[in-house]
Structures are given as structure tokens and as C-alpha cells.
């Protein structure tokens, strides 16, 4: 594996993230080899990925969706919640088991009749399953109300340096998002929010826990969430003490609002029927796919082809390797089943595909680097003042 091709294959392994998916006919590592040599494989991954600054996986712009499953009342979190997905794991070793959707779930866009029941204005977008203060709410989002979109990177300590990617939508004064209690008969009052976070996350079965290596093998579903900034600050900064970087996105007013609409549409379409994969579908790959859809970005001018994702968007060179047949799935399968040569780490450090901020720059949408969310919280006195 000392050839240039072999080095490129190693890049696939050297870039990991923490937002999953996998598909039946795209297997990155042979399951039998994984079960036999799990600890060896884990140590090789840790060795390789220790050289990488940012981990956010994704291998191909093409992903294969899992087969949807029917709702199962046995998987219900709250009998009074009409928008409870009652979801089962669609494939993998946990197929048919209840997904833990009591805290993480995708959105459900309401029909006009459903929206009217919640008193939502006819011209507004109405979505259920928006997370705020450990509960689900129905959100009223007014048209053309997005004032700013901010790309966030939540950095956290790990044996593998890692980060979580998400989008912060800030709404114009006077056009804030209105949250209405989702459960009928609730005594809670509606809440107005200036910010919502779009976050794509792995979701385990009831009683399950996240595991990076398990993310290769259909162990997790994936949720496309909208969460209040308050709830994310509580978890990321107050509880976990993580640093959250912020980059303003240079988008037109139309693109800002279309980006939110595309995120909601993707969430509605996916539900909890798709699988997370450490390499192929994760928080960063899914955010960039929605960004690319919104701005019409392609890996090469006039090519019409999407950029290849390896943990994050990679740029034209890697995409051309796939297009020219130098890289392909069979070669990657074989490579990951073979021994990994850690002596090539220096090469990887010099030639690794670009991390997220550079991918934003390549798309022409990287704006000003804003103060970290931590600093923003401290300098507004906390206590909910930034939301």
C-alpha cells in the first residue's frame, strides 16, 4: 500500500466525524473482519485520525436510504403527542427495535388544517418536533424572516480530535419564531425565539449509546433537528464546557430563507428512516449537502456533479479521482480490510482534504469569523439574553 492510490485510500479512514449513516449496498468495512478484529481496527482508526485537525465524515455524494418502517405504538414516547414518530430502526443489527426518539427526532411539517388547530398564521410555515427545554413544540416560522445564518463548530476533547457542525438561524426583530406547546391541553405559554439551531445527529435505539466504530455498521438512525439556541447552549457550553466557533455565511436574503426551507424539507422527508454512517452521512456532510442544494454548488464549474465528501467536502481533486475511476468502492473496501500503514501519517497531514471553514471559502460563502458563542454568552450576561 505504498502507492499514491494507497495513500489516497488512507485518507478515507483518516477523517472521521460523529454523525452517522450507512447503506446496505455501500459497505466500507467488511463486517466479519470488524467483529473479529474490533480492538485492532479501533486502535488503527485512533492512530490515523489523531493526525487530523477536524473530524466530520462523509465519503460519497451518493447515499442509499434505508427502507422506511411503519410506526409502532410500542415505540411511542408520549401517548398524547400526535407527532411522536413511534420509530423503529429501519436496518442493521438493531432492525425493528425502538429508536430513542423521546429527545431526538426529525421535524414534521404540518398541513394547513393541522396548523390552524394551533392558531398558526396561514402564510407561515408550521413544523412540529422543534426541541426547547427538553420538550417538543410546534413552531410558527414567518416567510422571509431569516436575517442571518451562522455556521457553528462545537469542538470537544476526544482521543480523536472532533467537532460537531450545525447551522444557527437568526430571525429578524419582529419576526421571531413562535413556539406553541405541542401537547394538547398544556398549561405552558407560547415562547418567542430569535434563534434556532439546525443540527443533524445520530440516534440510537432505546438503551443504546453512541460509538464511533459502531457508526460504520448500521447501528444508528439519523435525525435532522431544529433546537432552540438556549437548549444547545445549556448542553454544549454550560454542561459540557465546549468551545463553539461561529462563522457568518455570506448568503443573499433569498438564500438564507431557502436554506432553512431546504433543511425543513430534508428533515420532513427523512424522518427517522435513514441510517447514520461515520464516513458517509453525518452532521457535516448533511449540512453541506443542504448548503450545496441551496446555492447550486458543484465541485467543478459546469460539471453538474456534486463534490465528494470524505468527512467533509474535499474539493475538485478528490472528486476527479472518483470520476476517473482511480478511487472506487471496491478499492476502499479492500483497503479498509487490510493493514493500515501509520508511516504515511506525515503525508496525510500535508495532503488531507480541506476542513469545513476552507470548504465554505471554496463555495464563496465564508464570511466574517464571529466571536465564539461562549464569548457571546459571557458578554451578554447569560441568563437567556442572547436568545
Give a written overview of the molecule.
The chain has 387 residues and is of the alpha+beta class. It has a domain of 265 residues. It has twelve helices and 13 strands. The strands form three sheets. It has a six-stranded antiparallel β-sheet with strand order 9-8-5-4-10-13. Strands 1-2-3-6-7 form a five-stranded antiparallel β-sheet, with helices on one face. Helix 1 crosses helix 9 and helix 6 packs across helix 7. The longest helix is centred in the last third of the chain and has 18 residues. The protein is globular and about 55 Å long. The N terminus is likely disordered. This is Lnb N-terminal periplasmic domain-containing protein. Pfam families: Lnb_N (PF13387). InterPro entries: Lnb_N (IPR025178).
Residue share in helices? 25-40%
Structural class: alpha+beta
Shape: globular
The count of helical stretches stands at 12
Order of H and E elements:
HHHEHEEEEEEEEHEHHEEHHHHEH
Record field, number of beta strands = 13
Cα distance spanning the termini: 52 Å
Query: Order of strands side by side in the largest beta sheet?
Result: 9-8-5-4-10-13
Mean pLDDT: 77
Strand content: 15-25%
Oligomeric state of shown chains = single chain
Major sheet attributes: 6 strands, antiparallel
Radius of gyration: 21 Å
Amino acid at each position: 500500500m505504498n502507492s499514491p492510490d494507497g495513500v489516497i485510500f488512507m485518507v478515507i479512514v483518516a477523517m472521521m466525524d460523529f454523525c452517522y449513516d450507512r447503506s446496505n449496498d455501500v459497505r466500507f468495512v467488511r463486517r466479519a473482519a470488524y467483529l473479529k478484529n474490533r480492538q485492532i481496527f479501533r486502535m488503527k482508526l485512533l492512530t490515523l485520525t489523531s493526525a487530523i485537525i477536524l473530524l466530520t465524515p462523509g465519503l460519497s455524494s451518493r447515499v442509499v436510504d434505508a427502507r422506511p418502517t411503519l410506526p409502532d405504538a410500542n415505540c411511542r414516547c408520549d401517548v398524547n403527542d400526535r407527532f411522536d414518530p413511534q420509530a423503529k430502526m429501519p436496518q442493521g443489527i438493531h432492525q425493528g427495535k425502538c429508536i430513542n426518539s423521546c429527545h431526538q427526532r426529525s421535524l414534521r411539517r404540518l398541513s394547513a388544517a393541522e396548523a390552524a388547530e394551533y392558531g398558526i398564521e396561514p402564510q407561515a410555515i408550521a413544523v412540529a418536533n422543534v426541541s426547547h427545554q427538553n420538550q417538543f413544540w410546534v413552531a410558527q416560522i414567518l416567510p422571509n424572516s431569516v436575517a442571518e445564518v451562522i455556521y457553528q463548530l462545537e469542538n470537544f476533547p476526544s482521543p480523536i480530535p472532533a467537532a460537531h457542525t450545525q447551522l444557527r438561524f437568526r430571525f429578524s426583530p419582529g419576526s421571531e419564531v413562535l413556539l406553541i406547546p405541542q401537547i394538547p391541553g398544556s398549561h405552558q405559554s407560547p415562547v418567542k425565539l430569535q434563534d434556532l439551531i439546525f443540527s443533524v445527529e445520530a440516534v440510537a435505539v432505546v438503551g443504546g449509546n453512541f460509538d464511533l466504530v459502531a457508526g460504520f455498521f448500521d447501528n444508528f438512525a439519523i435525525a435532522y433537528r431544529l433546537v432552540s439556541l438556549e437548549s444547545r447552549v445549556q448542553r454544549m457550553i454550560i454542561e459540557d464546557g465546549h468551545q463553539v466557533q461561529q462563522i457568518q455565511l455570506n448568503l443573499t436574503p433569498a438564500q438564507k430563507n431557502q436554506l432553512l426551507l431546504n433543511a425543513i424539507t430534508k428533515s420532513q422527508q427523512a424522518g427517522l428512516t435513514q441510517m447514520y454512517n461515520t464516513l458517509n452521512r453525518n452532521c457535516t456532510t448533511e449540512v453541506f449537502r443542504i448548503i450545496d442544494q441551496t446555492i447550486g454548488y458543484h465541485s467543478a464549474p459546469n460539471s453538474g456533479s456534486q463534490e465528494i465528501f470524505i468527512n467533509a467536502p474535499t474539493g475538485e481533486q478528490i472528486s476527479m479521482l472518483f470520476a476517473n475511476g482511480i478511487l472506487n468502492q471496491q478499492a476502499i473496501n479492500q483497503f479498509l480490510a487490510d493493514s493500515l500503514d501509520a508511516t504515511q501519517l506525515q503525508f496525510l497531514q500535508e495532503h488531507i482534504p480541506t476542513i469545513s471553514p476552507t470548504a465554505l471559502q471554496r463555495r464563496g460563502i465564508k464570511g466574517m469569523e464571529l466571536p465564539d458563542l461562549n464569548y457571546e454568552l459571557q458578554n451578554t450576561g447569560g441568563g437567556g439574553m442572547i436568545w
